[in-house]
Design brief:
alpha/beta, Four Helix Bundle (Hemerythrin (Met), subunit A), 3 domains, four-stranded parallel sheet, four-stranded antiparallel sheet, 15 strands
Length: 468
C-alpha cells in the first residue's frame, strides 16, 4: 500500500510521489516571533513533527525547514512597547521557542531560516518578479505585486479576484494600482528597522520571505509545503503567485494544512486573547499527554481545546502507559508460551494502513487501543511469554518513533522496580502462610498507594501498575 496525502491545492487525496525517489523536501511556515507560542501553535508544530517522523519511518530521507518571521509590523510594535530593538526581541522569543518545542518532544527541523538573515535572497527574488513584469515600484519606494497580471488568482482557496472586488471594503492605498496588490518590499518609515535595496531603504513584506527562503534552501519546486489552514489566504495564495512569477514553475506539489485549535467555537489566537501558552499548559500536563491529545484528532479538522479534553486524553494515555510498564516487567517474569508475533504483525500492518491514509493518527490510535485490549488479555490470562513481551515492546517503540507518547526510556529502573515488587509479593505470600494477614494487607495497601495493584488469582498473585 502506498502513502496518500490530501492535497489542499487539488482538494483531493493523492498518492504521494516525491520529486526524487525516497527523498522529501518540506517547508513549513513557522511563527512570527513577538511572543511565547501557545497551544494553537503547538498543534501545528506537533502535526508536522508527526508527519516528518512518519515519512522517515516509511524510509524517506526528509529535509524539513521551518522559518522564523523575525522582522514584521507586530515585532516592530512590540519592540517599541518594550523598549527593545526588533531583532533583539525576535532573538529572545526564538530562544524561548526552542525551549518550548524541546519540552514538547519535537524533533528539530533541519534548519530554521530567518527573514533578517536572507535579505539578499529576498531582494534578488523581488527583482526577478519585477523583471518578469509582475511587480512595480511605488512612489514611496515600496514594491508591490500586481495581481492583475495573474490569470488564475485563488487556485488554493477558490477566492476569485473578481468576486473579492465586487462590493468589497478594502483600505484605500493610493500607492497601489489595485487594492489587492500586496507588498513585496515596504519602504522604511522614520525610526523603523531597514535594509538598503535598489528601491531605497526598507524591509521585506511578509509573503516574499517564505518564497525566497524556500527557493534558496530547498529549490524552486519542493514536495510538501505546510502550515495552518489560517495561512491559506492570503499568505500561501500569495506565495504561489510570487514563486511562479519569479521561477516559472510550481512552488510545491503537495500543500498540507492543519486545522485550528478552537476555544468556545473561536480559533485560539493572541488577537482574541483566548490562548494558553505551551509553558503554562506543561505545568499541568506532560509532553506525552499534550502530544497524545493533539494526535487523537485528525490533523485536518478543527480540534476543541479545554481542560476536560486534556484530562480525557490523559486518562486514555494512562491505560497505554500501564500496559507498557507491565510489558517491561513481563520481559523477565512472564511464564506463558505466546510470543505475540501474530498480534505484533497485525498491529504493525493496521498502524501503517491508517497512517498511509493521509496521516490518520485518529485511526492509528484506535488500532493501538484495540491492540492494548488484546495485550491485557494475554497478560491477565498468563499466556504471554517473555519473548512475546519483548516483541510487543518492539512494535510499540516503532509506533512511538512517530508519536512520541510513551514514557521516557527507563528500562533499567523499570526492571529494578519490577524485581522489587516481585520480592514484596514473595514476602506477602510468606506472611499469609504464617497467618500474619495485617502485615500482608499493609504491603498490598502500600503498593496500591504507589500505583501498583495486586490481584490474587488461581494461578497466583499478579500485579499491574495503575498510574496513581
Amino acid at each position: 500500500m502506498s502513502l496518500r496525502i490530501f492535497n489542499t491545492l487539488t482538494k483531493q487525496e493523492e498518492e504521494f510521489k516525491p520529486i526524487e525517489d525516497k527523498k522529501v523536501k518540506m517547508y513549513v511556515c513557522g511563527v512570527t516571533v513577538y511572543d511565547d507560542i501557545h497551544m494553537g501553535h503547538a498543534r501545528s508544530i506537533i502535526v508536522f513533527d508527526m508527519i516528518t517522523r512518519y515519512l522517515r519511518y516509511r524510509g524517506y530521507d526528509v529535509t524539513h525547514l521551518t522559518n522564523f518571521t523575525d522582522v514584521d509590523d507586530k515585532i516592530i510594535n512590540r519592540a517599541a512597547e518594550m523598549g527593545m530593538e526588533p531583532l533583539a526581541l525576535s532573538k529572545m522569543y526564538i530562544e524561548k521557542y526552542f525551549l518550548d518545542v524541546d519540552a514538547l518532544g519535537v524533533k528539530r527541523a533541519n534548519a530554521y531560516p530567518k527573514a533578517s538573515e536572507n535579505i539578499p535572497q529576498i531582494i534578488a527574488m523581488i527583482q526577478k518578479i519585477m523583471d518578469h513584469g509582475f511587480a512595480y515600484k511605488s512612489e514611496d519606494g515600496s514594491v508591490y505585486f500586481s495581481v492583475d497580471k495573474v490569470k488564475d488568482y485563488g487556485r488554493l482557496t477558490g477566492q476569485r479576484l473578481e468576486d473579492m472586488q465586487a462590493g468589497a471594503r478594502v483600505e484605500v492605498n493610493e500607492l497601489k494600482r489595485n487594492p489587492y496588490d500586496f507588498a513585496l518590499w515596504k519602504a522604511a518609515k522614520p525610526g523603523e528597522i531597514f535594509w538598503d535595496s535598489p528601491w531605497g531603504k526598507g524591509r521585506p513584506g511578509w509573503h516574499i520571505e517564505c518564497s525566497a527562503m524556500c527557493t534558496e534552501y530547498l529549490g524552486e519546486t519542493i514536495d510538501i509545503h505546510g502550515g495552518g489552514n489560517d495561512l491559506m489566504f492570503p499568505h500561501h495564495e500569495n506565495e504561489i503567485l510570487q514563486s511562479e512569477a519569479a521561477n516559472g514553475r510550481p512552488l510545491a506539489n503537495y500543500w498540507v494544512h492543519n486545522g485550528m485549535l478552537q476555544v468556545q467555537d473561536a480559533k485560539m489566537s493572541k488577537s482574541l486573547k483566548n490562548f494558553f501558552s505551551v509553558r503554562e499548559v506543561l505545568t499541568k500536563h506532560s509532553k506525552e499527554e499534550l502530544r497524545f491529545y493533539v494526535l487523537s484528532a485528525h490533523y485536518r479538522g478543527p480540534q476543541v481545546y479545554s481542560e476536560a479534553a486534556l484530562e480525557e486524553a490523559s486518562a486514555s494515555l494512562k491505560r497505554l502507559h500501564n500496559v507498557y510498564h507491565e510489558l517491561l516487567s513481563a520481559q523477565k517474569r512472564a511464564q506463558g508460551s505466546d510470543d505475540a508475533k501474530e498480534l505484533v504483525d497485525i498491529f504493525r500492518a493496521k498502524f501503517i494502513e491508517a497512517m498511509d491514509q493521509d496521516f490518520n493518527t485518529r485511526a492509528a490510535i484506535s488500532e493501538l487501543f484495540e491492540a492494548v485490549r488484546e495485550i491485557n488479555k494475554l497478560l491477565s490470562d498468563g499466556r504471554l511469554s517473555g519473548e512475546g513481551a519483548k516483541n510487543i515492546l518492539g512494535v510499540l517503540k516503532e509506533m512511538d518513533s512517530v508519536f512520541a507518547i510513551l514514557p521516557a526510556e527507563q528500562s533499567s529502573s523499570e526492571d529494578r522496580s519490577g524485581e522489587i515488587i516481585d520480592i514484596l509479593i514473595e514476602v506477602r505470600n510468606e506472611l499469609r502462610k504464617r497467618k500474619q494477614y495485617d502485615l500482608a494487607d499493609k504491603i498490598r495497601d502500600l503498593l496500591k498507594e504507589k500505583g501498583v495493584e495486586l490481584q490474587d488469582t488461581a494461578e497466583g498473585v499478579k500485579w499491574k501498575r495503575t498510574g496513581n
